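Following up on my earlier thread - several people asked me to post the actual chain instead of describing it. Fair enough. Here it is, all 153 residues.
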Amino acid sequence: MRKKGKTNYLSHLTAILRGNEGTSIVLVTIIAILVITAVIILRMVTSSLLASSDKQYNQDQAYMLATSMGTTIDDLIQQKVIVLTNYTNNSGTVILNNNPSKLPNANVTVTVIPSGQTGYIVNVEAKVGQATYMYSAYYSRTGNSTNYTRQIL
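Reply from S.P.:
Thanks for posting it. Predicted structure:
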């Protein structure tokens, strides 16, 4: 049995490609198709990863906006700057609708909904891009007191 080296295979392949012009064109076409396919797959994977990253970033921003606004509203209620007894409309009263200047595609809305005789539900809805986050808190008071206790829903 005779051992064939790499140079024998390479010279044999070179002879085939030189002798058949159609074969070399087919080989170049196959290589070009493989390269183009690899580029298309890489482009699709990259755009998919970027879209997923943008979606997660928007969700994080919506969460931060809603929780930050919820904390601010809670402070204003505890300091009696916002008096919940002024909001008796059962359909929900919008007390704030804000577009933060640093986030052009963001919107924060705060609504108050009366719940029972002495309770109120405060909903903070933050939208950033396609992401939405809802922060809800239930405020209750005892008797005619103006102090509210908060329960996060």
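The longest helix spans residues 21-78. That should answer part of your original question.
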